[in-house]
Amino acid sequence: MSRILHLSDLHLGKPLERQLLDSQKGSLASADIRAERHVLIETLDRLDAEGVLGGVQAIVISGDLTNAAEPAGFDEFAGLVELLTRHIGPEQIVVVPGNHDVPREHGPADPERYTEFLRVTRKLGLATPLLDGLDFSADGHLEGEYRAHEHLVGGEDFLIVPINSSHYCWGTEPLPESVIDSFLSAVDPAEVEEATEEIRRHDIPRVSNAQMAAIEQLLGAQTGGASSRERSTRIAVLHHQLLPVSASEEFKAFESLTNLGAIREFLVSLGIQVVLHGHKHTGALYWDFVADQQRLGSPPARVLVVAGPGRFRPGELTARVLDLSPRKHAPEVRIEDVFAAERRGGSPRRYVADRARLWDDPAAAAAAQALVIRGTTPAEVYERVQSHFDSVAQRQAERYLICEIADPRNAEKAPDDYPMSGDPGEIQAWMTDLVDWWQLHDPQLSHGVAFNHGERIYKRWGDQVDAASKLLSAASGDPSTTRAAILLLDPATESSPQLGEFPSFVSVQFQLVAAGGTWRLDCTGTFRKQEMRYWWPINVAELARVQAAVASKTTINRQKPKLGVLRTVTALAIVERQLPTVAVPAIDRAMDQRPEDLWRLAYSLIDPEKAGDAAELRALWDRYMRDLRPDVGGEPPAMSHRGLRRVLDMVHVIAPERSSNAAAALNELVEFYGFFSDPESADAENAQAGARRRLEALDGALDAMLGTQAPAGRENPE
Fold first, then answer.
1. Model pTM?
2. What share of the chain is helix, strand, coil (3-state, %, to 5)?
3. In the CATH scheme, what architecture does the domain 2-16+33-168+204-362 have?
């Protein structure tokens, strides 16, 4: 996770009347009056003491460092930089000039305009925007000393692009010479010239076309062009606001950026997802929707706008901290508001104001009361699902959740951030084994797990995959048929209110879709209920197998369809804090998948020397006991319904007259599982404690027999 501190509108230098915190009628203590700058420094000092500054990867200051571009204000800012660079390099501090940082007496064409600003930014190693007249030509070509300075600030998952919107501030509008001459001939020329200059001078916010061209060139040269947009959250910084940030009216000329429409389109073209600005001293948060004005049906581009508060008074919103999610396919920003302490010596108050999911498709909100999460790969969609549920309370349901995967080819790969401890290879093997078992056509295991999906798809009502592919293949005249459906729920036998466990996975629907001269096979799985953190990847992997099986048997106009969209539709979506109990333990699945392993476990309890290497045998036991070890918490542990009993039965077959301490410990554990055969109704605390004691006893007996050491307890997946 990357952290960015956002400050704005510091207005350092001799305090203005509005910046004073104390009312001082006399002049005796005028040099000791508290002002907003003192609250700013105190807040930053406290944030430093609390470790916040030490945890940031970038600091952004969006303009108005000073009150009136005076040297004293810039000197004070240079002192502030010393505080900010205690934990962060100056190249990670981004500063853009505000309208109060460019002197009135130096117009846009004057090379002296940025002298003081550069003295306390570039000369101290801070990153600044490309500046007109210094870093690029009038037609936008990079030139001058731009290579000697930082203009982009990047981190592992962000890229900050500073933009100068203050270059035209305090510029003078042209006035015809004849008008000036008539004034000068009538009155005192010096007075008229001064008054005329004041009338002509305007505070004009604008980003030049040349600067926009130069930024495009800089990004293309330094970040690898469009491909870098996929790796980083792009953040733009400028001083002036894009849209109004409050309902207050300010009736004056040049209130907003003169070329605002061009700037908003420019930001979208750069792939900017977040804009930080100041100027208005109002800490607003909003989405800016930039419409495609040529096509009404096109969804607007969406940009998060964060307005810096620029207020440094006790108890008021003073700064913001932006935390960027490390998920590359599901970028989001957690925005933390920082309020100045209510009293001197107190700590700033901080709380999370909001979370902005940058990946979220604004067009999805139009889906009638359904949340739609889309992505190209299963990994993308999984990250976005987890991002959504990060802020959803434990066990709180999301109703009507639709997940769409455009390319399901890697659906059987375990997500990189799957919340289970262990080596990625081990997690992948566990997931593959689990999917294999749930798709078995004729599993032996039935007690405790009333069904698996493969038996219902391929055996109970005949081979439904074969039937679906035949229906699709027979529909060459109308390949858009929707008749190819697979059911996993039997209304005739599974509609009783007293019915026990039956599938959450209800049905699969297939449809052929024309795609560029060929056909693709879309697949939609319907779930009455689904756990989205641990179990959704398993369900998706199963769906992908069924989709591939149907596609391999289907022929349309002598062509095999390509794999199309894989979609899950869930009526009730939840997340759990650990694997659901429907996750059949590996020891039980071994009855169907690896019965030879069960025989080795049985032999190890009777004659370990003949069963094989002691370390290998201990590792085999650990592999099958790992998901039985209860986590610390209130959830009931996973329990073996038949696998361990089958091992015990094998022991009795191998040597009915012999026993061992390990076999006796296993027998006690099996009897305990028999008593707690229904995890939903069992007392969770007693089940955990009882299982832990008996597993520890079995571990101890195995170690004594095999001369090994018991492994550490299973870690909580989270």
1. 0.74
2. 35, 20, 45
3. 4-Layer Sandwich (3.60)
